[in-house]
Design brief:
Blueprint (H helix, E strand, L loop, with lengths): L1 H10 L2 H15 L3 E4 L12 E5 L8 E8 L5 H5 L6 H16 L9 E7 L6 H14 L2 E3 L4 H12 L7 H12 L4 H16 L6 H24 L4 H22 L9 H25 L8 H6 L3 H26 L4 H23 L13 H11 L7 H21 L10 H8 L5 H7 L2 E2 L1 H11 L3 H14 L4 E2 L1 E3 L4 H4 L9 E3 L7 H14 L1 H5 L2 H4 L3 H11 L15
Parallel strand pairs: 3-4, 4-5, 6-7
Antiparallel strand pairs: 1-2, 2-3, 8-9
Protein name: Chemotaxis protein
Length: 563
């Protein structure tokens, strides 16, 4: 296990990776972390600082860490950049120790710690530097290289009482199979369930589990990134967020969320990790292929089914990252808002570029692909950068293609959810009975009818009314709501939950909206009792819908107000 940890640490970047892991490790070791990385703040050489007993200390000491990624080479130590480790060391002695030590810790022994994820390749140079300062100051040094960090992670996150052999075995299996994402995900999900099944009573219990799952998810991500296949890390991190929230809601109970609560901060760290995994996936796999016609489609494979399913999956991934970005915008300081506003603009253009350059997104195969379209609509409608007529045009083209396929009785939207059955169905052109069975119910058409009604897309709503009357009179058009047990099962999917409003009336937008608003009012309490909604973490509810393939509840689109 230590070899895996050393390889993982060596691969970590400095920003948002190694400097995110270290504070959690120090806290788990019992130290009080009083400096953590904050982007944009002058650090004076210190990335992380803590006070406590580490490395078998007899007394509490101040530990000052200057962090670099990878191996410590001559260039990293004393290169031309202002970011060299030697320059950071000088700033620690010249400024931080003189002016930045908190009052309550002044006079305490100081340990300066060069920290890096790899190996020390310049032992003589760094030893000479330390010897010179040791003669001049009452300060000691401790080199925290990849080997030492791996040992501490093993001692504090993988020790037997909190990580028995079966957890370590599942982690190793998940890492070994990152090139077979479905198998890797299966092992990691077992690990997550095992970890969150532990009885947690105190704040420290929750902190330990949350820090453990952060480390394990980060290890999986870095391992997968090194293998250039982050699919397992992405899906697994979704699963982690859902189970972390399911655990966190039990911790807070009926209390209000407090931003300074350590468990809350760990939850935010997990969300930020998921966002970074999502961002990297998009940067590597989507953006380079998004702005040319069919380039993204052709990169997926030759099968039309594979292309179709993956493109709708990509659509909701990018859109959900945009929703997380908007959520984060409401919670950050003013200094970060411009960056997030620009990111929102970029993600909006990316979503639209994926749509217009890949015709499969105009021809869905499965009824549950309305989930991906719904998440995209929530994101796109939050942006001022997309013309309403463009959205109407996209939805109208989908409806036209659906009508054509229904008339042909080939490649039309179906209730089939199984991949193999879908492959067989694509070439199907069968009898009336089988057609009616495969189109017996639909959430797809009523949700499209809702979007077009709200966008004033009269041509599209008329077309859906005609489809219902002439081509699908037997089909039960229905929409989805959370019900009284959804809060118990939304995040773990252990039981079927939710409620549908059947046989919705699509004869006119007025009747349709009146019917839905009436039911939205009836179901409002169930929706507002969803903890992720109640506490302002609504993207988690949407993530659950995407991950477990649940229709997005109508309450996300209607308030119950007829106006």
């Amino acid at each position: 296990m230590k070899l895996i940890l050393k390889e993982y640490l060596r691969s970590l970047k400095e920003r948002d990776e190694l400097d995110r892991i270290l504070p959690d490790l120090l806290s788990q070791m019992g130290a009080n972390v009083f400096v953590s990385p904050i982007r944009g703040r002058r650090e004076y050489g210190v990335d992380v600082a803590c006070f406590g007993k580490l490395e078998n200390d007899e007394v509490e000491k101040i530990y000052l860490f200057s962090i670099k990624s990878g191996d410590l080479t001559r260039n990293v130590w004393d290169g031309n950049s202002d970011q060299s480790l030697r320059q950071s060391m000088n700033e620690i002695f010249d400024v931080f120790i003189q002016r930045r030590i908190p009052v309550q810790y002044r006079g305490k022994e100081i340990v300066v710690c060069p920290c890096f994820g790899g190996n020390n390749l310049i032992q003589d140079e760094i030893t000479g530097f330390m010897d010179r300062y040791l003669k001049l100051n009452e300060i000691s040094f401790s080199i925290w290289d990849g080997d030492k960090l791996a040992g501490f992670i093993q001692d504090y996150f993988l020790r037997e009482d909190i990580a028995p052999d079966d957890i370590k075995s599942l982690l190793r299996k998940s890492l070994a199979m990152v090139d077979e994402p479905e198998i890797s995900i299966l092992h990691f999900k077992k690990l997550v369930k095992h970890l969150f099944s532990r009885k947690m009573k105190s704040k420290d219990d929750y902190l330990t589990v949350f820090r453990q799952i952060y480390i394990y998810t980060s290890i999986l991500w870095i391992w997968a990134r090194n293998e250039n296949n982050t699919e397992s890390a992405y899906i697994s991190s979704e699963f982690v967020i859902l189970h972390a929230w399911n655990s966190y809601k039990k911790y807070i109970g009926d209390k209000k969320i407090r931003g300074n609560c350590p468990v809350y901060q760990q939850l935010i760290s997990l969300i930020m990790l998921h966002m970074r995994i999502s961002e990297e996936y998009i940067q590597r796999a989507i953006i380079p292929l998004s702005q040319e016609k069919y380039l993204l489609s052709s990169s997926i494979g030759l099968s039309s089914v594979d292309i179709n399913l993956k493109l709708f999956d990509i659509l909701s991934r990018v859109s959900l990252l945009g929703i997380w970005n908007s959520w984060l915008y409401q919670r950050v300081n003013e200094e970060h808002k411009d960056f997030l506003a620009n990111r929102h603009y970029d993600l909006t253009n990316l979503v639209w570029g994926v749509i217009v350059n890949n015709s499969s997104l105009y021809s869905p195969y499965m009824d549950n692909q309305i989930i991906d379209i719904s998440i995209a609509m929530i994101f796109l409608r939050s942006s001022k950068d997309i013309n309403t007529n463009n959205m109407i045009g996209w939805l109208n083209q989908i409806i036209d293609n659906c009508a054509f396929c229904l008339n042909q009785r080939r490649r039309h939207i179906t209730t089939i959810n199984n991949y193999r059955d879908l492959i067989d169905f694509i070439e199907f052109s069968g009898d009336r009975n089988k057609f009616e069975k495969l189109t017996s119910a639909s959430a797809f058409y009523p949700y499209l009818f809702l979007f077009l009604s709200q966008l004033k897309g009269e041509l599209g709503t008329n077309r859906i009314s005609s489809i219902k009357e002439k081509l699908l009179p037997h089909c039960n058009f229905q929409v989805f709501f959370f019900n009284h047990i959804s809060e118990d099962y939304l995040y773990n999917n252990e039981e079927i939950h939710g409620a549908t409003l059947p046989n919705v009336d699509v004869s006119s937008p007025e009747k349709f909206l009146e019917q839905l608003n009436f039911e939205v009012n009836n179901q409002k309490e169930n929706f507002e009792n969803i903890s992720a909604i109640k506490h302002g973490f609504y993207p988690i509810a949407l993530l659950a819908c995407r991950h477990y393939r649940l229709p997005v509840p109508i309450n996300f689109f209607l308030t119950g107000d007829s106006n």
